[in-house]
Amino acid sequence: NVDFSKEYGEYGAGYIEVHHIKPLAEDERETHKASVDELICVCSNCHRMLHHQRPAIRPEELKKIIISKMV
Fold first, then answer.
1. Is 40 exposed, middle or buried (0-12, 13-18, 19+ CB in 10 A)?
2. pTM to 2 decimal places
3. Residue 35 and residue 58 in contact, taking contact as beta carbons nearer than 8 Å
4. Phi, psi of 20 (to 5 degrees)
C-alpha cells in the first residue's frame, strides 16, 4: 500500500518494484521469461527485506513479520 507519489510527488507516481517469487538463480529454464503469476509487486523497502538474507525469504514470511510489528 505504498504510494511513492505521496513522498516524491509526480516523480514517484506509478513506481513499484517487481519480485520474482522463484529466484532467478533457481530457474532452470534456458531463458528467464517469467509469467505474471511468477511475479509480485512490492515497495522497494519490502523488496530489499525479501533479499536481506540468502536464500530470500518468502513474501508470506515477510507479511508475518510486518503484521507482528503492528500489534
1. middle
2. 0.78
3. no
4. -80, 120
Are 17 and 47 spatial neighbours (Cβ–Cβ below 8 Å)? yes
pLDDT, tens digit (0-9, with 9 covering 90-100), for 9-48: 999 999 999 999 988 777 777 777 788 999 999 999 999 9
Name which of 30, 15, 38, 19 is nearest 5 in CA terms: 15
Q: Cell digits for 47?
A: 523488496
39 membership: H or E segment, kind and range: strand 39-42
- Selection from 67, 60, 16 nearest residue 41 by Cα: 16
Residue whose cell numbers read 500489534: 71
